[in-house]
Amino acid sequence: MRFFIGDKEKQLVKRLHSGEKTAMKDFYALYADYLTGVCARYIDNDDDLKDVLQDSFIKVFTHIREFHYRGAGSLQAWATRIVVNRSLTFLKEQRRNGFATLDLDVADEKETEDPPIRDIPPEAIHQMVRELPAGYRTVFNLYVFENKSHQEIADLLGIKRDSSASQLHRAKNMLAQKIEKYNTTNQPR
């Protein structure tokens, strides 16, 4: 019998709730690549990424009984939220320890036009985002991928709303420059 993803997910949740050990393994097989990608949007160091991802999986498995299935995709959305929150907590701890900065005071720059990206592989764009400074990358990801407002970002990161907007603007400009460079370097001759 063929299951749709919603049916598989619903069955997986039941198995996880019942404490079935193979369910954890199946959860990992189903979501590890996706959640690694989510984490990599925020954490640029591979060793730190592994640590944050491991902490996220531990949190998922220790809190799975608190999760209530709400339809297809709800388990993935819940796990994604955990990964994003663990990533933000890690970045805040790094900032407190003086290892990372959120580039709080950013001078305004002139807006650049969005360069074409249709011929750029997703992995290349993902890498460009990972290369952004931590503050720009964090704000960009929260705004673009998590659909957070600048006020929500400011509240999450402990920065001013205007700082969030400035960092997003700066991130977009840096990405536009990286894309332009990629397009120039990789044009067919």
TrEMBL record:
CDD domains according to UniProt: Sigma70_r4
InterPro entries the UniProt entry points to: RNA_pol_sigma-70-like, RNA_pol_sigma-70_dom, RNA_pol_sigma70_r2, RNA_pol_sigma70_r4_t2, RNA_pol_sigma_r2, RNA_pol_sigma_r3/r4-like, WH-like_DNA-bd_sf
GO molecular function, one term: DNA binding
Pfam families according to UniProt: Sigma70_r2, Sigma70_r4_2
GO biological process: DNA-templated transcription initiation
Boundaries of every RNA polymerase sigma-70 region domain copy: 28-96
Keywords: Sigma factor, Transcription, Transcription regulation
Residues in RNA polymerase sigma factor 70 region 4 type domain copies: 123-174
Superkingdom, natural source: Bacteria
Keyword Signal assigned: no
Gene3D superfamilies reported for this sequence: 1.10.1740.10, Winged helix-like DNA-binding domain superfamily/Winged helix DNA-binding domain
The keyword Transcription belongs to this UniProt entry's keyword annotation: yes
PANTHER family assigned: RNA POLYMERASE ECF-TYPE SIGMA FACTO (PTHR43133), RNA POLYMERASE SIGMA-70 FACTOR ECF SUBFAMILY (PTHR43133:SF46)
Family, per entry: Belongs to the sigma-70 factor family. ECF subfamily.
Name the record gives this protein: Sigma-70 region 2
Record organism: Hoylesella saccharolytica F0055
Lineage of origin: Bacteria, Pseudomonadati, Bacteroidota, Bacteroidia, Bacteroidales
